[in-house]
């Protein structure tokens, strides 16, 4: 159950007119009162002689009784209380009791003989009510409604338990502002999947992802088609900005602008500048990878660098300082935004959803110390500058590689938030991980299918050799991996690594040391991508050779060479 408190209104009649209007809003069906301060307020939809004006005058009476100079300019308190999608439909009586508990908990009408405000609760849809109150008590005093939003949240947590409703994860005040009811209804009328506020938040986050300064940031906003207004000091210094969608207009036909801070706390100009002002850290530089065989600066190179940066970030989040870990988690959001923006159509929807829900996990009360997250921010920049990736070939395969590593990064972020007690952030990260899992399955199907076929056609002696390597390097995981369908893709990868001159047992041991394998649906899939990245092997093998079985003589020769390398490695240890 989600309350959304707004106590800055000035026109009681205008709000009531909106709540009772059934002509413009599809979900405004049968609006009616379910409760009020005295239980006898006139209901314009039930009493034939009652009007909206009657109800407005009744609610405003304590305000109008004050001398004109003593009346508060913003005297209208308003909250919606919404059930979640999986809750049962509540009765009018239940909603009425919820309204009475909310106004008592927030100090609007505390009861027990204390002075209270006049209020009314209107239900115009199955899943929510609106409570309207005027912020002057019957004795002319102001109510004690300090932090009424948090008090409403706390009461809703109790109501959920008592009524057996879905228990919403409590927040910590770092979430972005939710769209208002009016914004949601406007989006529905316009046929938008998301409100203008949500679309703008996503567009601004994408513009921030990997940007290096104000000029690039504002150029990206303009390229996305947004209207931009900048706020300058008398000295000419830029103080802030706000943005609007070209087709989102108010009743006067003017664009509806949102300041960055109203989109999300970390999208104000000062907070964005923190990302740009971070110092250079040599230890954060991530190499493109050994023997990188792709064109410099292309989408596939960017995705390999993203996988490498994500791997480093996993270690930092697990073992690093909290402020540095928070910075890496925030930058992970930039990487997701950049990847969603540049990936092929068949993965874009799931990646976009992952970025959208992870936005909530990118902020907490642990203030991020920027600078050490430079590798992730550079990965986001490389993704954007590398341009759109194809859904096939090396682009498509390295997209699967990057998503695979990002899945573990986001999972590590979920664990970190859970340990810190950040319930909403942990839930958002877990939800993002599920979208990444779905995107990975789409991206990996073709390249892993090609590797699987190559592995199935390897000669028996070579398969036996790779089985021995696996059991030597990962004795505790070997039987699980051998039972997975992905084993053949891993066997083909081990063969490619041997052919390229690497020690497959050493690569396997290093790859498995990356931890987080317990959350993988297929350990062999994870090892395939870690080995191919570490060894600089092509991610896409669909055009490699004929896939014919290797001869027994060639298999034995490759095995003898690998055995000598493995023996030499053990001797050095």
- Spell the H/E element sequence: EHEHEHEEHHHHEEEHHHHHHHHHHHHHH
Mean pLDDT: 87
Category from helices, strands and their pairing: alpha+beta
Overall domain count: 4
Quick one: how many beta strands?
8
Portion in beta strands: 5-15%
- Specify the helix fraction band: 40-55%
Radius of gyration: 29 Å
- Shape verdict: elongated
Number of helices: 21
- Spans where pLDDT lies below 50 across 5 or more residues: 279-296, 546-573
Strand order of the largest sheet: 1-3-5-4-2
Give a quick account of the main beta sheet: strands, pairing sense, barrel closure: 5 strands, antiparallel
Q: Distance N terminus to C terminus?
A: 59 Å
What does this structure look like?
The protein is an alpha+beta fold. It has 4 domains: 2-163, BirA Bifunctional Protein, domain 2, CATH 3.30.930; 192-277, no CATH class; 282-444, no CATH class; 454-572, no CATH class. The chain has 21 helices and 8 strands. It is elongated, with a radius of gyration of 29 Å. The model is unreliable at 279-296 and 546-573 (pLDDT under 50).
């Amino acid at each position: 159950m989600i309350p959304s408190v707004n106590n800055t209104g000035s026109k009681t009649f205008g709000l009531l007119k909106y709540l009772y209007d059934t002509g413009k809003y599809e979900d405004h069906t049968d609006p009616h009162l379910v409760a009020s301060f005295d239980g006898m307020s006139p209901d314009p939809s039930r009493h034939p002689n009652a009007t909206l004006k009657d109800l407005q005058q009744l609610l405003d009476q304590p305000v109008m009784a004050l001398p004109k100079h003593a009346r508060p300019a913003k005297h209208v308190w308003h909250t919606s209380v919404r059930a979640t999608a999986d809750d049962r439909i509540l009765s009018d009586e239940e909603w009425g009791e919820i309204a009475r508990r909310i106004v008592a908990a927030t100090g609007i009408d505390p009861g027990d003989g204390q002075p209270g405000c006049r209020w009314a609760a209107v239900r115009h849809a199955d899943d929510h009510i609106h409570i309207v109150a005027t912020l002057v008590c019957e004795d002319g005093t102001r109510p004690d409604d300090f932090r009424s939003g948090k008090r409403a949240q706390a009461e809703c947590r109790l109501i959920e338990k008592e009524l057996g409703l879905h228990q919403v994860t409590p927040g910590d005040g770092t979430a972005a502002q939710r769209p208002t009811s009016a914004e949601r209804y406007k989006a529905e009328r316009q046929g938008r999947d998301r409100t203008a506020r949500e679309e703008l938040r996503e567009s601004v986050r994408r513009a921030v992802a990997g940007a290096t300064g104000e000029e690039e940031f504002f150029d990206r906003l303009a390229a996305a088609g947004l209207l931009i207004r900048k706020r300058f000091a008398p000295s000419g210094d830029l103080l802030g900005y706000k943005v609007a969608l070209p087709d989102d207009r108010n009743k006067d036909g003017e664009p509806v602008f949102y300041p960055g801070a109203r989109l999300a706390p970390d999208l104000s100009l000062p907070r964005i500048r923190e990302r740009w002002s971070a110092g250079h850290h040599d230890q954060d530089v991530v190499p493109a990878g050994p023997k990188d065989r792709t064109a410099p600066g292309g989408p596939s190179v960017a995705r390999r660098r993203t996988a490498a940066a994500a791997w480093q970030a996993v270690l930092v989040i697990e073992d690093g300082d909290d402020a540095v870990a928070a910075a890496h988690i925030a930058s992970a959001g930039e990487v997701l935004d950049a990847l969603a923006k540049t990936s092929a159509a068949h993965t874009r929807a799931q990646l976009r959803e992952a970025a959208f829900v992870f936005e909530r996990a990118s902020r907490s009360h642990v203030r991020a110390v920027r600078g050490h997250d430079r590798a992730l921010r550079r990965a986001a920049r490389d993704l954007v500058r590398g341009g759109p990736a194809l859904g096939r070939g090396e682009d498509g395969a390295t997209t699967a590689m990057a998503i695979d590593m990002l899945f573990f990064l986001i999972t590590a972020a979920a664990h970190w938030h859970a340990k810190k007690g950040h319930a909403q952030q942990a839930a958002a990260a877990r939800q993002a991980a599920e979208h990444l899992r779905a995107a990975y399955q789409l991206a990996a199907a073709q390249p892993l299918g090609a590797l699987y076929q190559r592995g199935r056609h390897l000669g028996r002696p070579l398969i036996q050799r790779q089985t021995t390597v696996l059991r030597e390097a990962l004795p505790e995981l070997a039987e699980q991996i051998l039972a997975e369908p992905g084993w053949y893709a891993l066997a083909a990868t081990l063969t490619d690594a041997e052919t390229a001159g690497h020690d497959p047992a050493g690569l396997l041991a290093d790859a498995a040391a990356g931890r987080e394998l317990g959350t993988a649906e297929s350990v062999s899939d994870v090892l395939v991508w870690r080995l191919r990245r570490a060894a600089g092997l092509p991610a896409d093998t669909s055009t490699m050779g004929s896939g014919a079985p290797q001869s027994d003589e060639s298999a034995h020769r490759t095995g003898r060479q690998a055995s000598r390398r493995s023996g030499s490695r053990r001797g050095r240890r």
